[in-house]
Amino acid sequence: MKSREEEYKEIFIAEALEYFDALNRHISDLEKRPQDEQILAEIFRLLHNLKANAKAIGYLNISDVSHKLETAFSLIRNKELSFSDEVVTVLFEGIDLLGELIHNIDNASYGDPDPVLLRNLDIIVDNLSDSTIELAKVQRYNTSKNLSLSELVYIQIKKLDHLLNLVGELVIDRDRIVSISRELENDELKNVSSHLNRITEDLQYSIMDARLVGIGSLFNKFPRIVRDIATAEGKDVDLTMAGHDIQIDRNILQIITDSLLHLVRNAITHGIEKPENRLKKGKPRNGSLSLIARNDRENVQIQLTDDGKGIDLTQVRKAIVERQLLPASTVEHLSDTEALSYLFEPGFSLAKEVTEFSGRGVGLDVVKNAVDSIGGRIRIESQKGKGTTFILQLPTSIAVKGALLFEVDEIFYAIPLIHTEQVVALEVEELHEVGGVMVADIFGETITVVYLHELLNVKEQEMNLGDKTKLKGMVQNIIIVSYNNRKLGIIVDKLYRQQDIVVKPLSKPLDAVELYGGVTLLGSGKVCLVLDVPAITRYFISRKQVLAGEHNF
Amino acid sequence: MPTKKDKALETALTQEETAASSGNGKEESAKIKVNEPLLHLIVFKLGAEYYGIKIEQVKEVTVTPSITRMPRTPDFIKGVANIRGDIIAIMNLEERFGIRPDTSVAASDLTYTLVIEAKEYSIGVVVREVPQSLNLAVSKMDKTPSFLQDIAVQENYIEGIAKVDNRLIIVLDMFKILSSDEIKQLSN
């Protein structure tokens, strides 16, 4: 594997060469149609990008020449410099020089660009439309140009999506073949299948790798955005960022782009106080906002922290009761993180009190849905007066997920690992029937537990989520899942193993069934249902409420 | 995909031969006048009645593969099955239409699945007996039988009634087989 710098350099060179080709094309067009504003604008744009990219990566020669050319073209655009023959010659030479500099980035013996040509460029820029007599003859550069094609190809993301789908299918078949070859005890088949196994894995990871982009490609847009929002709000905000190099699937990044923008906007407009208020509170005048990406096991974590006014938990608790999401008695005992998780309820933040006092704006449920849709997690930490942190945990890749496999009532299920906290085995005596549900003390924490068979397979009218006697056997396998800061224990019949699975989305019309995030095919050829933890949690809560309601009347 | 379609036709054709040996399909096609456009149906039994689906809507006929139940979906969804790498929903039309199963025939372990390609989705339909292929003249199908007016609007999945040799074949429009209400029901 090449280092990141090496990869960036290659991308820069390839892009720069493309710019160079485009510049050559446009300037030739311009020579024929000097009045064409559109061509001028395009040349201007290309030079500007080239300058910025070269400067960012540290090729000052290139950025310098681009800058000079850009200035010349801006003069032409403003009609301060005529597109005369002499000027055209210098500009052509200047662009050729750019090409040569780009080609020789790796060539240490190349030396400095031709000073005569640089002087010529300066002259046309400085002397404006004056006589151009002083222009010195430069030695013709590209007398024998080498034609070469770019090292980089652009590819539509759609094509990569298709490749990834195909590889997903291949992996499923591979698992099947590996499993058959184990049963058949044929040495030759075993060799072939283990080779197939390795190759497929390689292929899969290569394609996943091809889809990865640096988070920087999104982060780099934020300094400007933050500045604009802060200016509009009359606030001063210092943005710090880290983890530009962290790699993530391009589609995942695309899906969370709006969410991240939303959160950043919220943090500045509602979180960070105006300078005068900050000074009154003894905070530094400038608000600080930090955007940090890091790798967390197989996932990517993005953390957005502001040092604004934070969220007032008493107001949140009050709003939970007012919106009748929970009775007052329960809310009192809600932990802070649990209470904060209610901010993600649809429409919750519309509550006037919350927007006024804690100031978290509309649409956190939209953010949550986006994160859910790619199988990620989001949580809030906040301290009143000190600030708020949003933590997004995102999978690196869409298609392949680590998952826990289990069986309930002879159906195979999988739960993505990103939603599982831990797996425990408890005796039936350790489960208690409380208020129509089962609870258990798991490592000092009281967690609601549900028998998945009861939740999924018993008729809704006959469902009894608090009846221990329905459990089979003495020892119960419980998978603790977590969604929106709320933990739920799921009792399964048989627990199998942890495995990387390729999730196939359900096709229409089944894609409307929320409980399942998709299916996967096991090595045995059996279909395994992938449970959607957010939907299961929601379903459990809604059933619990229905059952509790029946109890009261 | 054209290849799969061909395969479906092939299956259907072989079944046409079986049908002919039992004295059904080919006789019909023989009677058809030249020049008249043909309707090619795949015919199967639900309850005690015959139903037909236009062959263009049938992608494939196969022995029902093993079905994985999907809890909390409507009863007429039997579950999902893996058919040539595609995971599709398998539906029981008898339950969908509330048709009494024919108790006079002993239930067999072996059932058949018609893979239907509707506009937006593929879906499998389980039938008890080998489906047959049947050609008939378009004029043999009554597109607007008067009784259709007595049927509620949401039941307009019946495209027409074909009468062939004293047999009544109810022709289904598979594009309308799952109403939007039912898709909504799926999501609840």
Automatic annotation (TrEMBL), chain A:
Modified residues (Phosphohistidine): H48
Keywords in alphabetical order: ATP-binding, Chemotaxis, Kinase, Nucleotide-binding, Phosphoprotein, Transferase, Two-component regulatory system
Reaction(s) catalysed by this chain's protein: ATP + protein L-histidine = ADP + protein N-phospho-L-histidine
Pfam families associated with the record: CheW, H-kinase_dim, HATPase_c, Hpt
Segments crossing the lipid bilayer: none
GO molecular function: ATP binding; phosphorelay sensor kinase activity
GO biological process, one term: chemotaxis
CC terms in the record's Gene Ontology section: cytoplasm
Chain ranges of the HPt domain: 1-105
Recorded superkingdom: Bacteria
Main enzyme class: transferase
Domain Histidine kinase: 195-398
Residues covered by the CheW-like domain: 400-542
InterPro entries named in the record: Bact_Chemotaxis_CheA (IPR051315), CheA-like_dim (IPR004105), CheA-like_homodim_sf (IPR037006), CheW-like_dom_sf (IPR036061), CheW-lke_dom (IPR002545), HATPase_C_sf (IPR036890), HATPase_dom (IPR003594), His_kinase_dom (IPR005467)
Known EC number: 2.7.13.3
Function: Involved in the transmission of sensory signals from the chemoreceptors to the flagellar motors. CheA is autophosphorylated; it can transfer its phosphate group to either CheB or CheY.
PANTHER family in alphabetical order: CHEMOTAXIS PROTEIN CHEA (PTHR43395:SF10), SENSOR HISTIDINE KINASE CHEA (PTHR43395)
Protein known as: Chemotaxis protein CheA
From TrEMBL, chain B:
GO biological process: chemotaxis; signal transduction
Protein's organism: Pontibacter fetidus
Domain CheW-like, chain residue ranges per copy: 38-183
Protein name per UniProt: Purine-binding chemotaxis protein CheW
Lineage: Bacteria, Pseudomonadati, Bacteroidota, Cytophagia, Cytophagales
Chain spans, region Disordered: 1-28
GO CC annotations, alphabetized: cytosol
A Pfam family recorded for this sequence: CheW
PANTHER family in the record: CHEMOTAXIS PROTEIN CHEW (PTHR22617:SF23), CHEMOTAXIS SENSOR HISTIDINE KINASE-RELATED (PTHR22617)
Matches recorded under Gene3D superfamilies: CheA-289, Domain 4, SH3 Domains
